[in-house]
Structure formats: C-alpha cells, structure tokens
Design brief:
80 residues, mainly alpha, two-stranded antiparallel sheet, rod-shaped
Length: 80
C-alpha cells in the first residue's frame, strides 16, 4: 500500500514538472518577443544595447530547461 502512495506522489510530481516545462516554453516565447521589441526600440550604432545580457539570460533559461527535461523528469519517471 505504501508503494502505491509513493508512486502516486511521483505521478503528481511528474505532472507538476510537465507544467513547469510548459511554463519554460511560454517564457521562451515571451523572451523572444521581448528581445524583438527591444531590438526594434533600443538600437545604438546598429547594435542592441543589451545583447550580451539577453544572451546570458537565454543561455541560463535553456540550461535549466534542458536539465529539467533531460535529467530531472526522467529520474522522477523512473521511480514510478
């Protein structure tokens, strides 16, 4: 009986992780929209003033999403 409760908790956790994954995808789309808007409005000498910052943020978010999808979610899934 206890094993079934643990499996159910892992299923709930996995469901929440999928929800987080979907939020990462929404964040990615919103980030792309923001970047386009900034590029259209904050250009100095034909360069966006904050390109380096955008690249750092994008890299960090992508890294976190990859860890979620390739490490955390499979680990939780294997425990069910």
């Amino acid at each position: 009986m206890e094993d079934e409760l643990i499996k159910e908790k892992y299923k709930q956790l996995l469901s929440k992780l999928y929800h987080i994954k979907n939020k990462y995808q929404e964040l990615d789309k919103a980030f792309d929209d923001l970047k386009v808007s900034v590029k259209e409005n904050l250009v100095v000498d034909e360069k966006t003033v904050v390109d380096g910052s955008f690249n750092n943020i994008k890299s960090t978010v992508d890294s976190l999403e990859n860890e979620l999808v390739n490490s955390i979610m499979p680990n939780v899934s294997n425990r069910m």
